[in-house]
Amino acid sequence: MSEQTGTAEAPSWLNDRDWLDGKTEIELSSRHLRAYWDADIIDVDDRNKHDTIIGRDDPFEVRFRVQLKGRLWRCICANWCFDVGFTAIGRGADFNLSDILPDPSVLRIRDWKGCDTLYIDFTVPVSGGTIPVEYCGTVYEVAAWFELRCCGYCEDKDSHLAVSGYEALEEYQFA
Description:
The chain is mostly beta strands and 175 residues long. It has one domain (34-174): Coagulation Factor XIII, Chain A, domain 1 (Distorted Sandwich). It has one helix at 97-100; strands at residues 34-42, 53-54, 60-69, 77-89, 95-96, 108-113, 119-126, 138-150, 160-174. The strands form two sheets. Strands 2, 4, 5, 6, 8 and 9 form a six-stranded mixed beta sheet that branches.
């Protein structure tokens, strides 16, 4: 708490004209904070790993990877939120994977500390029969995304979004 204002916010002095020599903006270069991201759907029981048709009763996995580069990441502590969205092409329901998993917390990394690791790699198993499928199958446009949130957890409406990204994963048919 600031002793001068009695609030949790520091007083803003950016527009103060009483600077001796002006203010200096500190620009952080990309070499101090870089991030690389990837997500994949893996058909675990198919010999052709590039096949985008998954049987309605077949299990599959979603793999998330984030590689962080730059020394400032070591000073950051926050919460990672991951998800996959399924938008039906034709008849079928739209949904997020977090809405249908028995335990959506498997898509979260709480209390992550950059001083511990700059590489995130985890796989979420999805049981057969989890994805809603129409009688003749359903084709979905699929995308994965992540958010890095601080000052609260992923579900907290007052948490702050620090970094986000997404990746389109193609169309998948669940038949």
